[in-house]
Structures are given as structure tokens and as C-alpha cells.
Amino acid sequence: MEQISYKTQTEIVTFQGREIPLENLTPILTPEQEAANRRELEQRLYEVFRKYQQKPTLFFFR
User: What's the pTM value of the predicted model, to 2 decimals?
Assistant: First the structure.
């Protein structure tokens, strides 16, 4: 199993008078991993849009 590294972003926000640290972890991926993730996301979005697209209505006039 490969080790995944993460980029950390920390921000302090105030909520109801208290300071709360928020930490965002973003995986550091190789260009190949990013491309594979992008292809998978595009395929899933395509499937969703295809499922919900309007079906053409056919009208027959005599």
C-alpha cells in the first residue's frame, strides 16, 4: 500500500465568539493520478447528465 502525502492549510475562524482552527488536507498526487481522477469524474458526470437529459419528443402529424 502506498503512502499518500497531504498539503495542509490551516485557518483560524471565529464562530460565536470562539476561535476555531480549520484544517484542510489536500492529497498530493502525481500527474498520472490527477489525470485518472479527472477522467473518472468526467465519466461519472457524463453518466449523470446523460441520465437526466431531455428525451426528444416526436410528433406525428397527419
Answer: 0.54
Q: Give residue limits of the domains in the chain.
A: 1-31
Written as one string, the DSSP assignment of the chain is: ----EEEEEEEEEEETTEEEEEEEEEEE--HHHHHHHHHHHHHHHHHHHHHHSPPPPP----
Q: Give the whole-angstrom CA distance, residue 32 versus residue 12.
A: 34
Q: Are 27 and 36 in contact (CB under 8 A)?
A: no
Query: What parts of the chain have a pLDDT lower than 70?
Result: 1, 54-62
